[in-house]
């Protein structure tokens, strides 16, 4: 080995004679990254990025962020599921506690629907030709000509029972004075029944037209040239519209059948002095007013059955509970 003096230049021979292993290149080593070239000034950072530890730290940081996001997503999903489960449980609990009410409500709805269906069906059927009037019957007629009444109501034939014209029926029955009251009865599917209550004739009134049969209200029932048998002759001042006539009619109507059959005449000048005649030329009964009729009837019947009836011409029962026989 040769020693060099200070400041002595190194010759080429010396340099070339030095071993190859002693030659050191002091230029920085640059690492070439795949996919690009490295710059000389970026050597430190490139080396730092190329270290496995740095890359792992980045991945770990990203993993923590991603983990937190996943945790947040899982947390919100759990809250939503819990809320949905709670709502579902609440609805189930409400249904459990309201099952009876809902069943009752359903039963009511079914019942109301059935009733409505039945009503609608019944009304529809009732107003259809299935329930048209085919026969009219008159019940309660004794003196009344039932065939004549049925003929007067013939215009109601063919009508559905609910559509029978009550006003038209009334107008037809007014023509029959013997009818005092009446009722209409529909007997499905095809029968219309009319129940009549006839007026009760209580006597006859003599006039220029003949003998007129009247009821207790003075309604004219019939007129004939001869006096009808079995009815008393009524003689009242003021005619059938007077108060005295109404009093006579009320007394005659209240008499029992056996006693009324014995009366041949009746009269009054006022409502307070009604008189009756028993038999042809028989005794006279001073009745008085229409008050206490039942008691007067009982008193008179007792007198007619007793010994007082022999030779009596007057029975005065105007004072209730007492009788004067003359």
From TrEMBL:
<keyword id="KW-1133">Transmembrane helix</keyword>
<dbReference type="GO" id="GO:0051301">
    <property type="term" value="P:cell division"/>
</dbReference>
<dbReference type="Pfam" id="PF08478">
    <property type="entry name" value="POTRA_1"/>
</dbReference>
<dbReference type="GO" id="GO:0005886">
    <property type="term" value="C:plasma membrane"/>
</dbReference>
<keyword id="KW-0132">Cell division</keyword>
<keyword id="KW-1003">Cell membrane</keyword>
<dbReference type="InterPro" id="IPR013685">
    <property type="entry name" value="POTRA_FtsQ_type"/>
</dbReference>
<feature type="compositionally biased region" description="Basic and acidic residues">
    <location>
        <begin position="42"/>
        <end position="70"/>
    </location>
</feature>
<dbReference type="InterPro" id="IPR034746">
    <property type="entry name" value="POTRA"/>
</dbReference>
<keyword id="KW-0131">Cell cycle</keyword>
<keyword id="KW-0812">Transmembrane</keyword>
<dbReference type="InterPro" id="IPR050487">
    <property type="entry name" value="FtsQ_DivIB"/>
</dbReference>
<protein>
    <recommendedName>
        <fullName>POTRA domain-containing protein</fullName>
    </recommendedName>
</protein>
<feature type="transmembrane region" description="Helical">
    <location>
        <begin position="106"/>
        <end position="127"/>
    </location>
</feature>
<keyword id="KW-0472">Membrane</keyword>
<feature type="region of interest" description="Disordered">
    <location>
        <begin position="1"/>
        <end position="70"/>
    </location>
</feature>
<feature type="domain" description="POTRA">
    <location>
        <begin position="131"/>
        <end position="199"/>
    </location>
</feature>
């Amino acid at each position: 080995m040769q020693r060099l003096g200070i400041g002595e230049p190194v010759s080429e021979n010396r340099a070339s004679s030095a071993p190859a292993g002693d030659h050191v290149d002091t230029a920085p080593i640059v690492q070439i990254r795949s996919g690009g070239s490295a710059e000389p000034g970026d050597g430190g950072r490139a080396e730092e990025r190329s270290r496995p530890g740095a890359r792992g730290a980045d991945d770990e940081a990203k993993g923590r962020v991603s983990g937190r996001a996943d945790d947040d997503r899982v947390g919100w999903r759990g809250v939503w599921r819990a809320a949905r489960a709670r709502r579902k449980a609440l609805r189930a609990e409400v249904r459990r506690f309201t099952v009876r009410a809902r069943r009752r409500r359903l039963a009511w709805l079914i019942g109301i629907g059935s009733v409505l269906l039945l009503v609608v069906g019944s009304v529809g059927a009732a107003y259809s030709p299935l329930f048209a009037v085919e026969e009219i019957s008159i019940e309660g007629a004794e003196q009344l000509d039932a065939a004549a009444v049925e003929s007067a109501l013939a215009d109601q034939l063919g009508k559905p029972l609910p559509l029978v014209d009550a006003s038209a029926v009334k107008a037809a029955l007014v023509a029959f004075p013997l009818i005092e009251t009446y009722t209409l009865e529909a007997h499905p599917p095809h029968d219309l029944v009319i129940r009549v209550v006839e007026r009760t004739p209580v006597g006859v009134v003599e006039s220029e037209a003949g003998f007129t049969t009247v009821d207790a209200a003075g309604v004219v029932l019939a007129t004939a040239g001869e006096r009808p048998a079995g009815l008393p002759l009524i003689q009242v001042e003021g005619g059938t519209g007077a108060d005295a006539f109404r009093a006579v009619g009320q007394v005659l109507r209240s008499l029992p059948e056996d006693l009324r059959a014995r009366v041949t005449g009746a009269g009054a000048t006022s409502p307070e002095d009604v008189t009756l005649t028993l038999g042809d030329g028989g005794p006279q009964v001073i009745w008085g007013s229409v008050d206490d009729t039942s008691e007067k009837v009982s008193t008179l019947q007792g007198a007619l059955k007793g010994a007082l009836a022999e030779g009596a011409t007057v029975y005065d029962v105007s004072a209730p509970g007492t009788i004067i026989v003359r």
